[in-house]
Write a structure and sequence with these properties.
Length: 465
Amino acid sequence: MRKGDLCNARQAVLLYALFSYAQVLIVTDQQIHLPEPIIIPRSEHRISRANISDNALKVLYRLKNAGYEAYLVGGGVRDLSLGREPKDFDVATDARPEDVKNLFRNCRLIGRRFRLAHVHFGPEIIEVATFRALHDGGDEGEERVIEDGRILRDNVYGTLAEDAMRRDFTINALYYNIADFSVVDHAGGMADLESGEIRLIGDPQVRFREDPVRMLRAVRFAAKLGFRIHPDTADPIPEMAELLEHIPAARLFDEILKLLMAGAGVETFELLRHYGLFAPLFPQTEESLRNEQDSTSGMFIAQALKNTDERIAEGKPVTPAFLFAALLWPALQQRLRVMMEEGLSEPQAYQEASREVLAEQVQTVAIPKRFSMPMREIWTLQQRFERRNGRRALRMVSHPRFRAAYDFLLLRAQVGDAPADLAEWWREFYEGSEAQRQHMVDDSSPRRRRRRRRRRSPKASESSD
């Protein structure tokens, strides 16, 4: 954020962050005392309605005109404050989900863990959440279920101030008020945007235990925004990383897509390993990276993520199958070596190793079959690149998964995991004309030796007479 954007409020916000920071809640006689928020008027922030989705504005104004509080909240406010284009827009309100549904015919109520309203405008969905209340960790019936410190279900509604304290990071607890176009800052989020810090609201150990995925979100925001994780938030992560083992494997798959397919994959990978978060997600790969004598595997994964980041920046499509194939390639290589030492042929080893690696991986991260099947094909095709003679090469190019496997081979060659001359041969073959391909295949084919006819001896001829 540029200096001067908060010229009149900056000093107040910084003092607020230092002396009235909303991490500690004072609970006495069942009363929760929350600090007063900083109200940043329209003239002192950079959010403009011109940069807010028309559909989000429709939702905000309809809620307001119906007598409800309505705020743009979370990533939309954060990104607009940083001069970035938001990916989506979320709304917070005191209207209950059923009230929102009554206001919008195009609304669907979803979720059991957190009841939400989704207002559909064609391909765009505006998510509307009701203010949620703070909790003290006690048993509060069916609407709130907490087990071992983790929130399993929470539909107890509260006030705007309580909702702000329930959010994960200070920079995500900023509310844009459609009533007067001000920004309401309950947790010092504007100060942290200026200083470039990711900071949890509340006690990090308690908040991470409530939802361990917050550790992954801290890394994602740090990598995406180029921020640093505040030491108070970062310090507990390595010792609490194992809590991710209790998160459903399907949810972790979705989180990994957000982590590694948002355009900052290389930085994210480095931060995940730095904080010990990569091991619970990809235990086999982490083990192979630690056991490896050189850094080829780590370089391979980093290069795959770099290529993915570049494609995203260029607006090109990326497939999770290719990315997951790269992330698990070191583990597959380690398993292949063991199986071939045990006497399996290379084709058999590829089939068996790929099956075992995937079977083990889905215990932690549930990779859908629509991605795991292409992954296996990408892997098993690698051995076939070495067979360039006869019609095998011609058949290889017509394989439906050839292009992905070919790109995988080029990536391996970049880091020295595959022979450079092999990759170059396939590049020329793939880009060449039919005549050039036929010529290359003929040159690669082994020359057949013509068999000489055996001459019959004279004695044999006489005896046959």
